[in-house]
Amino acid sequence: MSTASRLPKTVQRFTAKLPTEVNRTIRRLAVLSLIGQTVLVVTGGAVRLTASGLGCPTWPRCTSNSLVNTPEMGIHGFIEFGNRLLTFALAAVAALMLVYLWNLRKQRRDLFLLALGLLASIPAQAVIGGITVLSGLNPWVVGLHFLVSMALVVFATLLVNRAYGRTGRFMNRTLEPLPQVLRPVMLAVAGFSAIAVMLGVVVTGAGPHAGDADAPRNDLDWDLFSHIHAIPAYLITAGSLFAVYMVFRHRIAGPFRTAACLMLGVTVLQAVIGFTQYYNGIPALLVGAHMLGAALLMSSSTNAADLAKASPAR
Predict the structure, then answer these.
(1) Which of 150, 200, 232, 268 is the most buried (most CB within 10 A)?
(2) What is the pLDDT of residues 238-288, one digit of tens each?
(3) DSSP three-state, residue 243
(4) pTM of the predicted protein model
(5) Nearest C-alpha neighbor of 165 from the set 13, 266, 22
(6) What is the rounded CA–CA span in Å between residue 296 and residue 313?
(7) Residue 155 and residue 138: Cα distance in Å, rounded?
(8) In which band, very low, low, confident or very high, does the pLDDT at 191 lie, cut at 50, 70 and 90?
(9) Is 119 within 8 Å of 94 (Cβ atoms)?
């Protein structure tokens, strides 16, 4: 007896209306997931940079007597609870994605598992967020919370690529051959991006924006780790410049050309923001922009590495 035949009649009628191939709705949900994960990074940054990290002083409730923020909590409670609400919105998008992929769960196992991973990680993020609050904004827990968000941006980027058939087993297009050297270079750039983000977490944990006036710091040398953090950033810039140089030298067109140029643009923008904030006293607005840039860097480097891996070698 098949799985479908064991389902109740009502469920069978519902699943019969679901897509049997990747359609526009599935692709839009994948893009919405990527946008949502990126926005979550920004709202999480807003929580910390506005000293709203303990705007909801407990978890899972916002206060001991209220699930939601109250007017007495002011703007800090609103910002913190708004960030929590976005997690539920992302969970709804991931769940809806799984529903739309139900008839494709075996045929498009790649999409189904990525969507399932995104959904499963969201409650895990909520738990880490709760530990963050209950630990009084311990900088290492805050850093873990941010790194998980970065991993979700990577997964969402891969989901978009697979949904549009740009990469993976179900590619619906032929990518232009690339010089063989570009594949390891792009993989290295993606790896250095991850290292730069992890070191950035250490720098942030030593810096002034703790999320609350009484939150602890990691007591490391902020200036020293800022310079260490810059080392992988230089390597990312070199790799991105090399990729764009190879693209124009070999007249490579198509998705990889766009991906390489986008990655270089994001890298240069991140460098400008990073240097500007370093020499201007680390203003909160620039720190927030740098956090957004980190999410864009992880997405663009993942995209470029994914396309390079999927492209045939010259």
Answers:
(1) 200
(2) 999 999 999 999 999 999 999 999 999 999 999 999 999 989 988 888 988
(3) helix
(4) 0.90
(5) 22
(6) 27
(7) 26
(8) very high
(9) yes
